[in-house]
Design a protein that fits this description.
By secondary structure, the protein is of the alpha/beta class. It is 27% helix and 34% strand. It has one domain (15-35, 48-146): Tetrahydropterin Synthase, Chain A, CATH 3.30.479.10. The two termini are 16 Å apart.
Length: 148
């Protein structure tokens, strides 16, 4: 391990949302939900003046974005053949629609990494970055996106 690199972690829990995998030949093609959890690993070559990789209290924008995207929302793939139906349900106030490239765990992990990295870049420039995002749908299943 590089002696000039520091790491820290942060977990955000309790994001109940629904999704479906329309391409699945199994029951996963139906709308179903989980309380998602997000685990981040951060790295930095230098610590803040306070001695931190990132200021956990300063991650409010990440938390706010996660809440907007995943708290009581319905996630659907941008190519879902029923997308127009879901858009109508959103317009009618039946659900809070969020369209993602891939609403499954793997796709969500990459999506969260990309979006949260933009927020971190605004906060820290090149001093600190995300190295890993793990998205869990329950205590048994998760997917991980590792930064290059």
């Amino acid at each position: 391990m590089d002696p000039k690199k520091f790491k820290s972690t942060k977990r955000f829990t309790g994001y109940p949302c629904t999704h479906r995998q329309w391409r699945a030949g199994s029951h996963c093609r139906f709308v179903h939900g989980y309380s998602r959890e997000f685990y981040f690993e951060f790295a930095a070559k230098m610590l803040t003046p306070e001695g931190w990789v990132v200021d956990f209290g300063g991650l409010k924008e990440v938390k706010k974005w996660l809440e907007h995207q995943f708290d009581h929302t319905f996630l659907v793939a941008q190519d879902d053949p029923s997308l127009e139906t879901f858009k109508k349900l959103d317009q009618d106030g039946v659900l809070q629609l969020r369209v993602l490239p891939n609403p499954g765990m793997e796709g969500t992990a990459e999506y969260v990494y990309l979006e949260a990295s933009k927020i971190l870049k605004k906060l820290y420039g090149d001093r600190a970055w995300i190295t890993k995002v793990e998205v869990s749908e329950n205590e048994k299943n998760s997917a991980i996106y590792l930064a290059e």
